[in-house]
């Protein structure tokens, strides 16, 4: 029986051993180590990590959180990924519909208490959805924002007691763009329309020249993360 302590030690050692490994090598390690107890999470901003994972682990589970607030383009990207990639897309939904949440908490909770809205519509569904896995992969990159600068390629997620894998942590936006071009990877159309980071529609705006990629998320507030990664 693998304990949380075992997994944490494994994650910390792998983080050191794989720091200079390629993204594909990191994902192959994950596939060999965890098998079906490993999944990829994707916001469907782009499908780079899903595409990489499909090469390392054909048929890998790709977990998508449908918050009920997504842009139509994001849902379309999810559907296209499910159609054309060798992955198994799993859609998680919150316990309440938007209408049910509005009835309990009042409309536009995202404007009044975005932390609670994210907790209800992102954090809790992900925690429930990850119950079947020992390890999950994300598309976090160190260059996205100061809050992500220390992201390990393999680390320990103490909140969920899981191994957290960020295979493209060392990549730059130029690396992502090059991979997308080389492999014809699906990307969210909004990335071509001034959005550098795509989240829920009410809390996402286009970025201005010189802003970091996360500046368009929860603009005008001190909030920088939804709670999934911090």
Automatic annotation (TrEMBL):
Required co-factor(s) are:
[4Fe-4S] cluster
Could you tell me what the cofactor note in this record states? Binds 1 [4Fe-4S] cluster per subunit.
The entry marks the following residues as binding [4Fe-4S] cluster, namely 117-118, 200, 203
Q: In which pathway does it act?
A: Sulfur metabolism; hydrogen sulfide biosynthesis; sulfite from sulfate
What this protein catalyses is: [thioredoxin]-disulfide + sulfite + AMP + 2 H(+) = adenosine 5'-phosphosulfate + [thioredoxin]-dithiol
- According to the entry, every stretch annotated as the Phosphoadenosine phosphosulphate reductase domain falls at 43-205
One cellular-component annotation, GO: cytoplasm
Q: Does the keyword Lipid biosynthesis apply?
A: no
Q: GO MF annotations for this entry?
A: 4 iron, 4 sulfur cluster binding; adenylyl-sulfate reductase (thioredoxin) activity; metal ion binding; phosphoadenylyl-sulfate reductase (thioredoxin) activity
- Protein localization: Cytoplasm
Task: Mention one GO biological process in which this protein takes part, according to its record.
Answer: hydrogen sulfide biosynthetic process
Cleavable signal peptide: none
Instruction: Quote the catalytic residue positions.
Output: 226
Its Enzyme Commission number?
Answer: 1.8.4.10
Q: Which UniProt keywords apply?
A: Cytoplasm, Iron, Iron-sulfur, Metal-binding, Oxidoreductase
Q: Which family does it belong to?
A: Belongs to the PAPS reductase family. CysH subfamily.
Query: What functional role does this protein have?
Result: Catalyzes the formation of sulfite from adenosine 5'-phosphosulfate (APS) using thioredoxin as an electron donor.
Protein name stated in the entry? Adenosine 5'-phosphosulfate reductase
Q: Which organism encodes this protein? A: Streptomyces auratus AGR0001
Instruction: Name the gene for this chain.
Output: cysH
């Amino acid at each position: 029986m693998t304990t949380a302590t075992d997994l944490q030690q494994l994650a910390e050692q792998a983080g050191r051993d794989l720091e200079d490994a390629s993204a594909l090598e990191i994902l192959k390690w994950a596939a060999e180590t965890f098998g079906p107890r490993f999944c990829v999470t994707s916001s469907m901003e782009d499908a780079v990590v899903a595409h990489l994972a499909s090469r390392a682990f054909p048929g890998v589970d790709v977990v998508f959180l449908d918050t009920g607030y997504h842009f139509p383009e994001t849902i379309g990207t999810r559907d296209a990924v499910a159609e054309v990639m060798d992955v198994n897309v799993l859609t998680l939904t919150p316990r309440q519909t938007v209408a049910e949440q509005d009835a309990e908490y009042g409309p536009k909770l995202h404007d009044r208490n975005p932390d609670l809205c994210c907790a209800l519509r992102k954090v809790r569904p992900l925690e429930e959805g990850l119950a079947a896995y020992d390890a999950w992969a994300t598309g976090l990159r160190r260059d996205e924002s100061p809050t992500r600068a220390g992201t390990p390629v393999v680390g320990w997620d103490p909140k969920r007691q899981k191994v957290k894998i960020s295979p493209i942590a060392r990549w730059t936006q130029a690396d992502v763009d090059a991979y997308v071009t080389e492999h014809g990877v699906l990307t969210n159309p909004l990335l071509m329309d001034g959005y550098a980071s795509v989240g829920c529609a009410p809390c996402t705006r286009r970025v201005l020249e010189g802003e970091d990629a996360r500046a368009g998320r929860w603009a005008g507030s001190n909030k920088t993360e939804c709670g999934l990664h911090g």
